[in-house]
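A favour, since you know our structure tokens better than I do. It will help me judge whether the discrete encoding reads sensibly. The space below this message is yours for that.
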Amino acid sequence: MLHEKLRCYRMAVDLAEELSKEGARWPKGLGYLKDQQKRAIASVVLNMSEGNARQSQKERRRFFEIARASASEVSSCVDLSQAFGLMPAMCAMTLKSRLALVSKMLWGLMC
């Protein structure tokens, strides 16, 4: 499939795996945050895939915009994870840096 050739797509899938592993370490009672984070990173990946399959530039852009907004949501989830003491600062910084790179790549696909 075409979307699998996108570097930002592969990076987002890798981030999803890493976030899932991090979330598995969290104590019970924080399922709402883990679920929100999973939905947001899934939205990044799925909208990237769907946007890349669209023929018109307007449709592609719309899906890539949704993916970028979802990446921002994931970043906020990482901030909360750190604030709640669930994730070390260094780990959060690394994840947010990688999310920012995915977002920049998506911006490039939108232009």
